[in-house]
Amino acid sequence: MDIEWLRKLCLSLPATTEDIKWGNDLCFLIAGKMFCVASLDHPQKIAFKVPDEMFEELSNAEGFIPAPYMARAKWVLVEDTSRLTKKEWEAYILHSYKLVKQKLSKKLLIELGLYK
Hints:
Blueprint: H1 3-11, E1 16-21, E2 25-30, E3 33-39, E4 46-49, H2 52-59, E5 64-66, E6 75-78, H3 86-101, H4 106-111
């Protein structure tokens, strides 16, 4: 996985910010809430939120595990980033973004210019 490609994808989503947390993890956030975390170490690992109904299936898929410390919030960790195509990455990251965004308050969505 090319980290610059991932950055471009995540930062293309409205109101997204990025931050380094825990020393070496690149986090992408909306309103301070993470929707994607990429380790900057090698081998690279990337975590994101998934819908409840997909969590069990993805957690048991080859190359995936429940994300440490975040599994209770239905996050998965991709241990082998080559397992997904760019289209799959785009779909999972966008879905994670939408899951986090839908939990934001109406007031916050208005402040971010995201309320429709």
